Amino acid sequence: MSPKRHYERFVLWYSPLWIGAVAAVQLTGIMDAWRDPAYLIFGLALALPLILGPLVLGTPDQHLPWWQRHWVRFNVWIGLFTWSGSYFISHIFFQSLGMKYRFPAEWSLEAAIGGPDSGRVPFFLYLMTQAYFATYHVVMVRLLRAFRQRFRPGFLAVCLAVAVIAYVVAFAETFAMANPLLARYFEYTDRDFVLTIGSTGYAMLFVVSLPMFERLDEPEPWRLGRTIIDGMAASWLALQLIDVWALVVIG
C-alpha cells in the first residue's frame, strides 16, 4: 500500500474518535466551564493524533527523513489551508452569513484588517479544524477517486462531481453546526438561508481544495517546498472565490 493510501486509511479510522469527542463535550455542556488552557488542550488532543499516529504506528515511508514522508506533506498542506480559512475567510462568514462563535474563550487569532470588528476566532478552533479538514479532504478525495475509476469521466463531468461533493460536505457540516443544541457555542442568524444558499459559499473552499489536494504526491512524491507553495496557492484561490461569491450572492 502506498504511503498516501495508508495515511488516508489512518485518518478515516481516527475520524470517529474526534467526532465522538467533539459531540460529547458540546452536547453535554462540559465546555461551558472551560477556560482558555482547557480549550487549547482539547484542540491539541484532536490535532496531535494526526502526527503521533504515524509516528507510533509506523508508515510505509517511515524509513525516509521526516520531511519526505507523506503524512508530513498532508498535514502541512491541510494546515496552511486551515490557517487561511480560519484567519481570513471566517470574517466573510461573520459578515455575510451572520456566523457567531460563542465559546467562552478569550485567546483568539484573526485578521487585523476586517477581523476583530466582525468577530473573533478562538485559537483552539485552528487546531480542531486541522482534524475536521483532514477528514473532509480524505472523504472527498476518495469519493472523487472512486467516481473517476468507476465512470472514466470527462473534464466537465469531473467539474460537476467536484461541485456536488463540495456542496454535500459543506451542507453536512453546516447542518450539524447550525443546530439549536449547539447555539450556546455556535450559530447563524438565519439558519434556513445558511443551509441552502450559505452552504454554496462554504462549498467554494472545497471546490478549490478538492482538485488541488487530490494532486498531492501524484504521480510521485512532492518536495516539501512544492507542498507549501501548493497549499498557499489553494488558500489564496479559495479566498478570492469566496469573496466573489459574497459579492455576487450577498451583495
Helix content: over 70%
Structural class: mainly alpha
Coarse morphology = globular
Q: What is the chain-wise order of helices and strands? A: HHHHEHHEHH
Overall pLDDT metric: 93
What is the end-to-end distance? 48 Å
What's the helix and strand layout?
Elements: H1 3-27, H2 36-47, H3 49-57, H4 70-97, E1 100-101, H5 124-151, H6 155-177, E2 186-187, H7 191-214, H8 224-250
Antiparallel strand pairs: 1-2
Helix pairs in contact: 1-3, 1-5, 2-5, 4-5, 4-7, 4-8, 5-6, 5-7, 6-7, 7-8
Please name the defining characteristics of this protein.
2% strand; mainly alpha; 251 residues; two-stranded antiparallel sheet; single chain
Please characterize this protein's 3D structure.
With 251 residues, the protein is mainly α. It has 8 helices and 2 strands, in the order H-H-H-H-E-H-H-E-H-H. It has helices spanning 3-27, 36-47, 49-57, 70-97, 124-151, 155-177, 191-214, 224-250, and strands at 100-101, 186-187. It has a two-stranded antiparallel ribbon with strand order 1-2. It is globular. The protein starts with a helix and ends with a helix. The model has no long low-confidence stretch (mean pLDDT 93).
Short description:
With 251 residues, the chain is an all-alpha fold. It is built from 8 helices and 2 strands; from the N terminus they run H-H-H-H-E-H-H-E-H-H.
